[in-house]
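Reviewers of the previous submission asked for a worked example of the structure-prediction workflow described in the proposal, so we include one complete record here. The input consisted solely of the amino acid sequence. No template or homolog information was supplied to the procedure at any stage.
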Amino acid sequence: MPLADKLHPPRILLAEDDLVLAMTMVDELRASGFEIVGPTRSAAEGARLVEHQSVDAALLDLRLKDGPCFALARALRIRGIPFAFVTGETREAIPEDLADVDVLDKPVTAVTISTMLEKLLQEP
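From that input alone, the workflow returned the following structure tokens.
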């Protein structure tokens, strides 16, 4: 079933420090039938959003305005919220405890993002 056909579209936390890229991703995700939580440019704000809003999955840039996203990633993992990293950095920048997380290499396309989110949303 296409995402746009669902009564309640999946809510995606978007953490991206590049405002232009974030707005492009927001437009692409909304066009694909997702609802966006954020976007946020900082890990701290992302953590606040997750604390107070329903989130089904997340896309995280490795480097945010206030530093690495790893504390936010760990908080998402504890809550059972699936997520993927979206980055221009090498995989070596990811800590060992998060090395199993899917990574989308920038630049990303709308199809790549939607495919990853559909995969994340199907995970148990």
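The first helix runs from residue 19 to 31. We consider this example representative of the routine output the project will generate in years two and three.
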